[in-house]
Specification:
The structure is a single chain. The chain has 367 residues and is α+β, with helices and mostly antiparallel strands. 40% of the residues lie in helices and 14% in strands. The protein has 13 helices and 12 strands. It has a 3-stranded parallel sheet. It has a 3-stranded antiparallel sheet with strand order 6-7-8. Strands 1-2 form a two-stranded antiparallel ribbon. Strand 3 and strand 4 form a beta hairpin.
Length: 367
Amino acid sequence: MRMKREQPPSSFVSDITPDSLSLEEVNLQHPYLRKACLTKKSKAICNRLTGKIDCATSFLPEMLKESDESGKSVGPLTSHPCVQLIRALRLGIAEVCKSMGYLAGIRVLPPRQLDSSDRNDANWSSSGMDGWLRLRDNAVLRNEANAWLQLLDSPFALSARAFIDEDIVAAALSDRSRAKGSPPRTEKAKRNALRSANRSDYTELTIIDRQTGTPVSHRDVGLGLSQILPVLVSAIGNSDRLLMIEQPEIHLHPGLQAQLGDVFIRSSLGDRNSGGKGNMFILETHSEHLILRIMRRIRDTTKGTLPKGIPPVHPNDVAVLFVEPSPSGCIVREMELNERGEFVKAWPGGFFEEGLNEVISLASQKI
């Protein structure tokens, strides 16, 4: 059966100019998209697909040509609403891609000297290396990361230490430059000379043990710190971005995994609730502790018992998707949450009940 093609209203072309166009406006005006049903989760992403229309038409297929009355091609078909829609989506998607950030599941452990790392590596940003250099070079970001490390009960703090060339050190401490017959310089004089020596531009990120004050390299502490620092930089060092992070909880003990939930809540909802623009996160995780913390904050919001500094969290702020393999392919299930921070439907299995099963098994053996 042949279906009659619905013609767009005449006002559609005149209402859209090649200067600006948003996807939301297209969705309201275009008859083919007006009937599309977008969920509230996808609307949040689709609203980002905005941008000015690119006047260039070189990307359009050659077959899209405008013809005169005799059928002769006279130029690119630029006034057709479908063409304008494609151009708007193309530019909008490009803008969204520019605002995206991605952090891989295994973050690289940097060399002792950060400057010796390969900046031409294709995985430079996704491996977390970019975050290390930002921590070294940005004092404000470093202070924010230290505040979070303290909230996360980490025994370490970050510091940037300037290094002095060994020749400069030797010259500052040497007595050869003193006048002949003058007494040797005191230790205090040597220290003053060292402070006034010309320092090099070489600065290194150093880890400080809070308990002992001992400076150590990031190569000399556990892997957990090297994995969580790039995650913290992504969360606190960005705004109004779509950030995708694989396994943010890797190499962290359960307490820290739960605390990460507060990090993401603050980064996503903190600025937004105060009039700013928070980040949007897509997290791939196997951590029930992380999810439980977010569910707890929804419950705290409903009861009015939120800790100081944690913004309110509502069920429509969070989407939990469970990916389940099947013979015909993967099945994605959305696990809805209610105002009590509970799943509306039972979890499919193999996740939250594992800890309870172990406790029940242990208790039954003691009976």
